[in-house]
Design brief:
596 residues, 5-stranded mixed beta sheet, 6-stranded antiparallel beta sheet, Alpha-Beta Plaits, single chain, 46% helix
Length: 596
């Protein structure tokens, strides 16, 4: 056996989308209902665990055998759930090095994130409808809870549901096989699989939460939110849950508005009459969702107080990470100089005194959110970042373009219409945008590889590939050059839009350059994280230009900085600098003493 295809059906008392795979698998009601597998080209087998069947011994052995590659669409989910089913020690998971995630692989190739959409795009056997599977799981769990394990009459209906779910598993495995046959023609670089395994280890490790702060913050938010909602109804006579009715109330009081979004209300308050300002202020506070992130933390935290599964490798197009549980790239900043004292008040549950010591409880809770991430006992968090990383990468890309640096107007006639679109203060960047645009047009109209600034462009089999100096490729599906209404040609391609939907989008040199720079920034960071891992500095959090290490030695900050400032082997001339600090809570720097 060389390859083992796996797909499972599970049920749990936790919500997978909000709790994440790790908390989902820890729930007391978690169970694996069906285990579907296929070895190499052998027939598909469905093991009905719920009705007493057992996974064959040779398959159990294969799950731990490093010589057998385990293939699953969302490998993290299968790996974590099977670790629980096999009753591995607490917080010990099957080795990610033995697994290959086809969702990651497909994303690398620029394919959609949905298995059903991928199957449709490639013309393979359609995978099972995930919505049907979700409804069946919920029905099954509802029947279990309603009847209980000691109600045999409830079990009479179970085989029908399990049979339908088994058909879904069989369809999924058939689609996974077909997808693998397509993907194996376009191997993922081994460095990417190494980065994926490192990402899985970081997710397995997790980060510790101050659960007392999280619980108290939820209670505090509910306490003040209830008071604000009551006051809002006293003023307006309506509940604070209907934007349309609030707009009608404002219009009846002499203020006609098109929107009462948070941004719109913030602008309205600058010119609003005094008699309407309190209602607008309350609406603005009640509309804020930052404090509800505490609820998300509470739902996802594991039994040992650590939050796992924060990162999704290749979750965004072009290889960037996404954050399925908490948007780590959009966290509030700690501004208050009295944040430590106010946090103690929140943790103690003294909500009435909190109101008298700060102008806005909601704002303080929002600031406190990032300080919920703490180190384990006897450790500190070491936070290091690359300042202006994308600018350094851009400087590195244009380092040899002296001709463009000498003259910003040395463009050929065909390029003139696009110069204004790509104009940059640095003429070398303008030149780079044009060179990228032209290289893409050449490789799409002629079956040849185009090259500029160390970037390789090729178009084949319905995919535009931009190979980066790091060896990784950015892939765009269904590229095409079309002519617009103004007579100028434009580059079109299919991909994920900003709302996460598969769409036809327009590209140009500047847009592709942005993807290239962000992609290289990601590669620089992952290269540094790999070297930190090799040096035994465990990363627990990371963002676009930042890593957080949990360490017992604050003096390790200098050593970590030295590791990170070493440029990757594919960019030895790149100048990298870091800045960082040690803290007891994430993003909470020690306040400097005031000077008198």
């Amino acid at each position: 056996m060389n390859h083992l295809y796996i797909d499972i059906e599970t049920t749990s008392g936790a919500n997978l989308s909000s709790a994440g795979a790790y908390r989902y698998a820890e729930d007391d009601h978690f169970r694996v209902l069906l285990f579907g597998y296929a070895a190499d080209n052998d027939p598909i087998h469905i093991v009905n665990l719920e009705q007493g069947e057992r996974i064959p011994a040779e398959v159990i052995e294969a799950l731990a055998d490093p010589a057998v590659t385990k293939l699953a669409y969302d490998a993290q989910f299968e790996r974590v759930c099977l670790s629980r089913h096999l009753e591995l020690p607490r917080n010990v998971y099957l080795c990610p090095e033995h697994w290959r995630c086809m969702k990651v692989w497909a994303s690398y190739r620029g394919l959609p994130s949905s298995m059903k959409k991928i199957a449709s795009a490639l013309g393979v056997t359609i995978a099972a409808d995930p919505e049907i599977q979700r409804v069946l799981r919920e029905k099954y769990l509802h029947d279990l809870r309603k009847g209980g394990d000691q109600a045999p009459e409830r079990w009479e209906k179970m085989p029908v549901v399990l049979q339908t779910l088994g058909q879904c598993v069989r369809q999924n495995l058939t689609a996974e096989r077909a997808l693998y046959e397509y993907l194996r023609r376009y191997p993922l670089p081994e460095t990417e699989w190494a980065h994926y395994c490192m990402d899985q280890r970081i997710n397995d490790r997790g980060v510790k939460l101050d659960r007392k702060l999280v619980g108290s913050a939820i209670n505090c938010d509910d306490f003040f939110r209830g008071g604000m909602a009551r006051r809002f109804k006293e003023i307006t006579g309506i509940c604070a849950d209907s934007p349309a009715r609030f707009r009608q109330w404002l219009a009846a009081n002499g203020m006609r508005v098109d929107s009462v979004s948070k941004e719109a209300v913030s602008r309205l308050r600058k010119t609003a009459p005094v008699e309407l300002d309190e209602a607008l202020s309350l609406w603005e506070l009640l509309s804020r969702t930052e404090t509800r992130k505490y609820v998300a933390l509470g739902e996802a935290v594991c039994n040992d107080g650590r939050l796992r599964g924060l990162f999704r490798f290749c979750g965004h197009p072009q290889g960037r990470f996404s954050y399925p549980l908490i948007q780590l790239d959009n966290l509030p900043v700690c501004r208050s100089s009295e944040l430590s004292e106010l946090r103690d008040i929140v943790r103690a549950g003294e909500f009435n005194s909190l109101d008298s010591q700060c102008a806005s409880v909601t704002d303080i809770l929002t600031q406190l959110f990032v300080t919920s991430f703490i180190p384990r006992r006897k450790c500190r968090l070491l936070v290091l970042e690359y300042p202006a990383l994308e600018q350094r990468i851009l400087d590195w890309l244009v380092r040899d373009d002296w001709e463009a640096h000498a003259s910003s107007r040395n463009y050929v006639r065909d390029e003139q219409p696009r110069v204004s679109e790509y104009f940059h203060d640095d003429p070398r960047v303008t030149r780079l945008c044009l060179d990228i645009d032209n290289a893409i047009r050449r490789c799409l109209t002629h079956p040849a590889v185009a090259k500029t600034h160390g970037l390789l462009f090729s178009g084949y089999n319905g995919t535009l590939c931009i190979e980066l100096p790091s060896g990784r490729a950015l892939c765009y599906r269904e590229p095409e050059i079309m002519f617009g209404v103004d007579g100028f040609s434009i580059i079109m391609y299919a991909g994920m839009n900003k709302d996460g939907k598969w769409d036809i989008m327009q590209g140009n040199g500047a847009k592709f350059l942005r993807d290239i720079v962000q992609g290289l920034a990601r590669d620089v960071l992952l290269d540094a994280m790999r070297r930190l891992t090799d040096a035994n500095y465990p990363v627990i959090l990371h963002l676009a230009n930042k890593v957080v290490v949990e360490s017992e030695e604050p003096a390790a900050l200098m050593a970590i900085s030295a590791v990170m400032e070493k440029p990757p082997h594919w960019a030895k001339e790149m100048k990298l600098t870091t800045q960082g600090y040690a803290c007891n809570r994430y993003l909470e720097k020690k306040q400097r003493p005031s000077r008198h």
